[in-house]
Design goal:
417 residues, 32% helix, globular, 6-stranded mixed beta sheet, alpha/beta
């Protein structure tokens, strides 16, 4: 591969995920010269999509929330051609599939919330109070409130143990990628606020269209792919190819593992691991609606017919089903998932084709309380770090972390002139 050419940039960003791209955009707008080096063959980090036998395969099941402030600021939502999920979930319980719908979005489904189906009258009242406080009030108190586990916060909010086990635990396990509800209650309240205020969607060309749109707004020579960094040097970085690239500042915008390797002494959180099984099937759709299903028995995190959300995710006449589980793939695990899916969808799954399995080792940072909602970008003179592991492990967190890193770099370089 030919060496990178051109003058040394003011700032070198290592990693072309959401955080790195956002950082690069802000630095360029401020008038600095920037280069982004990415180890893989594409932008997006974990937020990428592939074409596989005519199907769109996201690298792990992901959804896109339209309510995030950074999303509204940085992206053209119409260009993504978003299609929404149903505003609610179907929960598989010992009494069969029970639907839980947001009545403010789907008033015709209000009967789904009748007391005694999934929730008692007491639980419905507690849910109304919780949602009103989180959605209608200012965000500041949510960020500054007492931090405890999500389980403790839900219990204190008046929810019954039965409702927590039937609804919150299976649903939030797919959000937090842990099934003990030990995640920070501050983060829970922010997530709940964003979900109720926003719409969960998928882009027409897959989740990878989100970082691709950010990258498309950069000059063509800014991002260099397949340029892994060996280590940081006194003057910049040393690429694995042996080429040295000098820069006044280096921003490490990788996942937590590579960041810790490039920045010795950097403390990174434990990462959650998730595996998604992608099955293809023909004939009638297993569930002819764009709805997320969860399982109160916790045999999987969630499952969805993605081609019901975006028809282009599957070829004509086929359906794409994504099912996620905690942890890595293991021998025999897919067979157990397939058996559970037959029960949940109420249809035979023996004929379903396993298209591919995607395990994401650094899918989300663990966020037990007390949890800082952001961490400093400054590591040392001329050294900075950003990424969702420095924030709340979300699209909003990644973009905000990149914004914060750019702001810190601009401040430091201005003061050094």
């Amino acid at each position: 591969m030919p060496a990178m050419s051109g003058a040394s940039p003011d700032v070198l960003v290592v990693g072309a995920g959401l955080a790195g791209l956002a950082c690069a955009v802000d630095l360029l707008r401020a008038g600095l010269s920037v280069r982004v080096v990415e180890a893989s063959d594409g932008v997006g980090g974990r937020m990428r999509s592939d074409r596989h036998e005519g199907f769109v395969i996201d690298r792990g099941f992901q959804v896109f929330n339209t309510s995030y402030p950074q999303v509204k600021r940085r992206l053209s939502l119409p260009a993504l051609k978003l299609r929404p999920f149903t505003p609610g979930v179907v929960v598989h319980t010992e009494r069969g599939n029970l639907r839980f719908t947001d009545p403010t979005r789907a008033p015709h489904r209000f009967s789904d919330l009748r007391p005694g189906r999934l929730a008692s009258a007491r639980d419905l009242l507690a849910l109304g109070v919780l949602s009103a406080r989180d959605v209608l009030g200012p965000v500041g108190p949510l960020k500054r409130g007492e931090d405890r586990t999500t389980w403790t916060a839900l219990s204190a909010a008046g929810f019954s143990e039965e409702f927590i086990e039937r609804f919150f635990r299976p649903f939030l396990s797919g959000v937090f990628l842990e099934d003990e509800l030990e995640t920070s209650s501050r983060f829970f309240h922010l997530v709940w606020r964003s979900m109720v205020r926003g719409t969960l969607c998928l882009p027409a060309r897959g989740i990878g269209a989100v970082p691709a749109q950010l990258a498309a707004g950069l000059p063509a020579d800014v991002v260099s792919l397949e340029r892994p960094v060996e280590r940081l040097t006194d003057d910049g970085v040393l690429l694995a190819s042996g080429q040295e690239v000098a820069a006044r500042a280096v921003v490490v915008a990788t996942g937590p593992g590579p960041a810790a390797s490039l920045l010795p002494g950097l403390v990174v959180p434990v990462s959650r691991v998730v595996t998604t099984y992608y099955h293809a099937t023909g004939g009638p759709s297993p569930l002819p609606e764009p709805t997320l299903l969860t399982d109160s028995e916790r045999r999987f995190l969630n499952t969805c017919v993605l081609s019901e959300v975006q028809s282009g995710y599957a070829p004509a006449g086929r359906h794409l089903v994504a099912t996620s589980v905690l942890g890595a793939d293991e021998p025999g695990r897919e067979a157990l998932v397939r058996t559970a899916l037959a029960e949940v969808y109420g249809t035979g799954t023996d004929g379903w084709e396993l298209l591919t399995v995607r395990t994401v080792p650094d899918a989300l940072p663990a966020m037990p309380p007390p949890q800082p909602l952001s961490r400093t970008a400054w590591v040392g003179p001329g050294r900075y770090v950003c990424g969702d592991h420095r924030a709340t492990g979300s699209v909003q967190g990644a973009l905000a972390s990149g914004t914060r890193a750019a702001r810190t770099v601009l401040r430091d370089l201005a003061s050094s002139n």
